[in-house]
Design a protein that fits this description.
Elements lengths: L2 H6 L2 E7 L3 H13 L5 E7 L6 H4 L4 E7 L5 H10 L5 E4 L5 E2 L1 H13 L3 E14 L2 E9 L9 H10 L8 E3 H13 L3 H15 L1 E13 L9 H7 L1 H19 L7 H19 L2 H11 L14
Helix pairs in contact: 4-7, 6-8, 6-11, 7-8, 8-10, 9-10, 10-11
């Protein structure tokens, strides 16, 4: 068996998808043109896509169909149970996770057993007509290579950039995803996804473009300010639930009592929240809800 054959069996690509046939077909065309050898699962809700296996005969592709209303996390959890390789790459259906990024991530993880995940730079782009525009490199923070899991978590949250669409060790990712699926709120699901990844092991950042991400859609509830504005009464409860699950896992590997660990996790995370919770915007939003003039825009009559 050749080295190429061995590497082909080491990784699986999982692509959850719904109602994005144009973007998905463009990405599969890219994978086909690069003769990507990995097993690929397209997890489609709604069963409206054409027979993908026939369109891309040179890909090792399985098109798995689900009912329209199957939740994202249920669908991905089912897809992960189909994976038999040591590593798994989770891809969006409207971005471009590069072949080079996946290949180099698999090679890195196979040589570094203390790392649970690997990715590179995530660059934002837009397309106007026939013009491809690089907007900026959005995710670029250094590798999280600290030996202490609490130190890795602190460094993740201190300069928070998510670890969601990456290449993972399959067993570690299954454990992480089980926790994510039970977490409430989009913001805290994303945080749990990233945080539990660093509890599973170190996370590497390759010096290359790992993923091209579209600017077409903004998921504002994944931002602390918008999550608080949208669900102010649920925010603290969702955070406490997320934090307590983190603390339970951390107490298995570090020696801190529950109150001390809870305080530490509060401080770590509120440093991140405070960075994005602009007080002027919150004041204006609160005054708007109360139908009163806002002091945050300089109204001298507001006491």
């Amino acid at each position: 068996m050749s080295i190429a054959d061995v590497e082909a069996g080491m990784n699986t690509i999982v692509i959850p998808s719904k109602d994005r046939p144009k973007q998905l077909l463009a990405y599969l065309t890219y994978l086909s043109a690069n003769q990507v050898p990995y097993r690929i699962y397209v997890l489609e809700s709604g069963s409206r896509y054409p027979a993908l296996e026939m369109l891309f005969p040179n890909l090792d592709l399985a098109h798995v169909r689900y009912d329209e209303d199957v939740p994202f996390f249920v669908k991905v959890a089912d897809g992960l149970q189909r994976v038999s390789s040591s590593f798994v790459t989770l891809c969006t259906d409207d971005d471009v996770t590069t072949w080079e990024g996946m290949r180099e991530s698999v090679r890195f993880l196979s040589e570094h057993p203390d790392y649970a995940a690997c990715q590179g730079y995530h660059a934002l782009f837009s397309i106007v007509g026939q013009i491809f525009k690089l907007v900026r490199v959005a995710w670029f923070t250094p590798a999280l290579s600290q030996a202490d899991p609490l130190a890795r978590l602190n460094e993740l949250v201190r300069r928070y950039q998510p670890i969601c669409w990456a290449t993972f060790r399959t067993d570690a990712f299954r454990r992480t995803f089980d926790i994510v699926a039970e977490t409430q709120g989009l913001l805290f699901r994303e945080l749990a996804w990233s945080a539990h990844s660093v509890l599973e092991g170190k996370v590497h950042r390759l010096p290359l473009i790992y993923c091209w991400r579209r600017l077409d859609e903004l998921h504002l509830l994944g931002h602390p300010l918008y999550a608080l504005i949208e669900q102010p009464t649920e925010f603290l409860g969702q955070f406490a639930s997320y934090r307590d699950v983190l603390a339970k896992r951390l107490r298995q590997v570090i020696h801190l009592d529950q109150p001390a660990l809870t305080r530490t996790l509060d401080l770590i995370h509120w440093r991140y929240f405070a960075r994005d919770l602009d007080l002027g915007v919150i004041n204006y939003f609160t005054d708007t809800v109360l139908s009163r003039p806002s002091a945050s825009i300089g109204d001298k009559d507001v006491k």
